[in-house]
């Protein structure tokens, strides 16, 4: 996977050496910027979505730990690059992923990048798994992906789901609607263990929200918000089985 990074180092020569090593031996690392002090580093960190920050300890007007304190919520991996080994314990306490000593060993640099790559790959896989709309480990809830993460919805708040090509519209009892890039069949399977019935090729309803059934070849159901949904003849018996 590609890793976005910055180099925080006050010595230009050291920055150039690390940048050249990364380009030659760690092609999956993209260096998005360089900083010579804490303030420059803060700007880069706040303006980029980073995977790695290569961080020298001693800099003008503050050190690496001052920088990490100012960042606060750290969502990147930190690789310390320093000529001083007495910062190792502080780096460990700052949850550093790796501690590189100057002069930089190419083998150690490759190990550091490989280690971070493994971490980020596992995190990405877990995130992709969690961000899939599905029933979560918390009873009675389902996760709905969003651009900046995911939303957790109580299954009991769902009135019905409606197919919209390869999307699904989820209607809630709060008069809100969610549009999710998954098919209705996906939600039929995800909500399989909850009280949801596929009553039509285009509708999946929360049986607990059904307040009335009107007879017919398939008939139709009326939900608690007054919404009427047609029932396919082939789905009729499945629906009525909930009310036996």
UniProtKB/TrEMBL annotation:
Organism domain of life: Bacteria
Protein's UniProt keywords contain DNA-binding: yes
Residue span(s) of domain Response regulatory: 4-117
Gene3D superfamilies (UniProt xref): 3.40.50.2300, LytTr DNA-binding domain (2.40.50.1020)
A Pfam family it matches: Response_reg
Keywords: DNA-binding, Phosphoprotein
Sequence ranges assigned to domain HTH LytTR-type in this UniProt record: 142-244
Entry GO MF terms: DNA binding
PROSITE patterns registered for this protein in UniProt: HTH_LYTTR, RESPONSE_REGULATORY
InterPro entries xref list: CheY-like_superfamily, LytR-like, LytTR_DNA-bd_dom, Sig_transdc_resp-reg_receiver
Modified residues (4-aspartylphosphate): 56
Database matches in PANTHER family: STAGE 0 SPORULATION PROTEIN A HOMOLOG, TRANSCRIPTIONAL REGULATOR-RELATED
Protein name per the record: LytTR family DNA-binding domain-containing protein
Origin species: Flavivirga aquimarina
């Amino acid at each position: 996977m590609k890793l976005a990074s910055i180099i925080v180092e006050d010595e230009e020569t050291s920055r150039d050496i690390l940048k050249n090593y990364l380009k030659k031996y760690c092609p999956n690392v993209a260096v998005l910027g360089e900083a010579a002090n804490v303030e420059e580093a803060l700007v880069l960190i706040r303006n980029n979505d980073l995977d790695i920050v290569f961080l020298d300890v001693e800099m003008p007007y503050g050190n690496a730990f001052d920088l990490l304190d100012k960042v606060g919520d750290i969502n990147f991996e930190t690789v310390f690059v320093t000529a001083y080994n007495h910062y190792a314990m502080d780096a460990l306490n700052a949850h550093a992923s790796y501690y590189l000593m100057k002069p930089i060993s190419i083998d150690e640099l490759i190990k550091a990048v490989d280690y971070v790559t493994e971490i980020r790959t596992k995190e990405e896989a877990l995130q992709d798994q969690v961000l899939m709309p599905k029933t979560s480990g918390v009873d009675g809830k389902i996760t709905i992906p969003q651009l900046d993460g995911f939303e957790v919805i109580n299954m009991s708040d769902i009135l019905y789901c409606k197919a919209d090509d390869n999307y699904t519209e989820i209607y809630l009892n709060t008069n809100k609607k969610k549009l999710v890039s998954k098919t209705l069949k996906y939600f039929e399977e995800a909500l399989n263990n909850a009280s949801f019935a596929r009553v039509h090729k285009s509708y999946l309803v929360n049986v607990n929200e059904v307040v009335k059934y009107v007879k017919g070849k398939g008939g139709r159901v009326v939900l608690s918000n007054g919404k009427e949904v047609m029932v396919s003849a082939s789905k009729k018996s499945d629906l009525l089985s909930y009310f036996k």
